[in-house]
Amino acid sequence: MSIVLAATAASLAASAVAPALAALVQKKTPYFASIVAGKARMRTGPGKTYPASWLYQRADLPVKVIDIYDRGAWIKIEDPSGTQGWMMGTLISDTRTGLVMGTIAELRDSPRYGGRVVWRVEPGVVGRLSKCARGWCYFDVRGQGGYVEANRLWGVTADETLS
Length: 163
Hints:
The chain has one helix spanning 2-26, and strands spanning 31-35, 40-43, 52-56, 62-69, 74-78, 84-88, 92-93, 97-100, 105-108, 117-121, 126-133, 136-141, 144-149, 153-154. The chain is of the alpha+beta class and 163 residues long. Strands 6-5-4-1-7 form a 5-stranded antiparallel sheet, with helices on one face. Strands 13-12-11-8-14 form a 5-stranded antiparallel sheet, with no helix packed on it. The longest helix has 25 residues, at 2-26. 29% of the residues are buried.
């Protein structure tokens, strides 16, 4: 009985991931995505037989997808530092995130320079992105958010529009 339940659970988990993975595979590279797992290995090639070159321990880290292999089983990514390698497709999500680059970024109550500063975030902070338009994005870090200039973030282009 427990083997049947385990197989059913595994099947349901795989079917939940399949639509998200299918959406990623259909996009034209390059595009931004994020690491879904708290621990994810980057490899030197598209397969578990290739050596691991990096261990990421940061869920939601934005990455740039630059190639797709074997219908999405393996995805070649570039991280914010420019390091490239391969990850299992199930470790990558189409959830959009950004990484603050440079100096402290001011988050504002509206997408404009005259908006009131609601809080500041340090370089290296990762947050979820939404409402990107005209060079500004809404940046949410665990429920606290504000608008930040898109050019302050790695994980979005300045001219990109996100809803």
